Amino acid sequence: MDALVAEDVGRRYGDTVALDGVSLRVGAGEVFALVGPNGAGKTTLVRALTGTTDATGTISVLGESPRAVNRERLGLLPQDFTPPERLTARELLAFYAGLYDDARDPADLLATVGLDEAAADTHYENLSGGQQRRTCVGASLVNDPDVLFLDEPTTGIDPAGRRALWDVLEDLADAGTTIFLTTHDMAEAERLADRVGLLADGSLLAVDAPAALVREYGGEQVLRVGTDATEVPALDYAADLADGTLTVQDVPPTAIGEVVADLEAAGVAYDELTWTEPDLEDVYMALAGDDSPGSEGGGLA
Amino acid sequence: MSRTRRIRATAVAGWHSFLRRRTAVFFTFLFPALIVLIFGALVETSGTGGGLFAEPPSWYVAGYLGVVVLFTPLSRLGAEVARTRDGNRFEKLATTPLSRAEWLVAQLLVNVVVIGLAAILVLGLLVALTGAQIVIAPATLLVVPFVVLGVALFCGVGAILGSLADSQDGAVAASNTIAIPLLFLSEAFVPLSMLPDWLPTWLSPLTYFSRGVRAVTYDGGSGTTLATFNAPDPLANLAVLAVAAVLFLALGAWTLPVTD
User: Fold this and answer.
1) Which residues contact A223 (CB under 8 A, 6 or more apart)?
2) Which residues span the domain enclosing A147?
3) What is the pLDDT confidence band of residue A96, given thresholds at 50, 70 and 90?
4) Which of A9, A180, B21, B162 is deepest in the core (most CB within 10 A)?
5) Of chain A residues 12-71, which have a CB less than 8 A from chain B?
6) In terms of Cα–Cα distance, which of B124, B105, B142, B106 is closest to B217?
């Protein structure tokens, strides 16, 4: 059974189209990451799915409409969420736990999100950015939700804190929690998500597993050679030369030695070799590109 | 039971948050104390034969209590709603079992405690500094429901202002804009006889607070110069206040935002 179903979901703010016929399904226990430029409609889609904003189309969460679903089963970390700042992390988790009939022990939760005793008894406003975000994630876990919505959960956290939170989310996913997260961090999406959706200008441009998206849209593996050559040497791979860089297209890692041998055989001197394979960021750039509000936009033709 | 648990958790969090905003605590209690000191002790509200403060000190007890019942919940709720919205807390709460009405009731409970304490402070200062003689009778206990319902009423209005204003500053400015005219046009400090006949003071819910509290704390005294004191029925005023409180609380809960 799908935990989340959205069919032709739309939302307008005046003349601005925030969501334009978005359809997607997220299976129970799946981790789904939504990526896209600022203003793409990610937060609006989260709000539509959680029933905190009106939207056209059909939305189902755990088989119910968003506003009818049992709220004991949902967890949400909104974007730019700031809880009451003069409460300690422990008090905040106790507060949110008090809103549910069946809540986790705040002390256990503090350990789950990696907050030690000192941090637990510190006022939220005095915690570090990473500790604050862990507290907020903890607040979204107090009811051990079946479906967890996280709107940019690791924004503003240092790399170590981000990885610690990823571990928490991976444990949740392993335990069967359905996670719908939005992020600007492609590494986060690639590591956590079973599937990734790319949203731009309110439209879902592509949805698939990260590896499949990379295969489909990421482009080729490329070998870049720093050289003073003046013309493209004869190679088994397509290549072009510009600004002292010879770019050899679609070179698998096992063929790097072969290309280098061909260069040397052709008498091409080189001082730098860089091999890159496409990743989700290349997919993002290929599909959304400079699709931030006010730009001409990229996207699929 | 679940509802009680949710309201309790929210009220406890709200109470702790309030206590730790020390400037808020300080000025919440300093403001009514200053009003009593300035208007009750410095300007002196003893009968002078004319002017704004011409009634016996006891006549103004309802007015001073009206100050705390009116100003504090209006500005506190307005700012709290704006603060909660700005931090996207309403969006978070909308996905929990806590309803908007329960959130507002929790805020009301915090305000009842805060304003109850402020009211006790004001009464103490009034007696100590102005010599106000408060009627002590079983009916005097009706001051408690008057204060509770007054707080509820203005918590509702504050929630509406906070929902409509786009910032904490805006909410506080709006609450002051409403509170100050209400204070002087609701028989709190200015007797009806000093106001134009055409002024519909009956439209102000604070009028019923003033009349009702005065009916149970003031016996008509001696030396009344302007206010014709025909003790009104406190229960009738309490009933009107109750209806207004329920109405504005419901309206306040309804207008609370979910997202920004």
Assistant:
1) A247, A248, A251, A256, A259, A273, A274, A275
2) 2-81+141-215
3) very high
4) B162
5) 47, 50-53, 71
6) B142
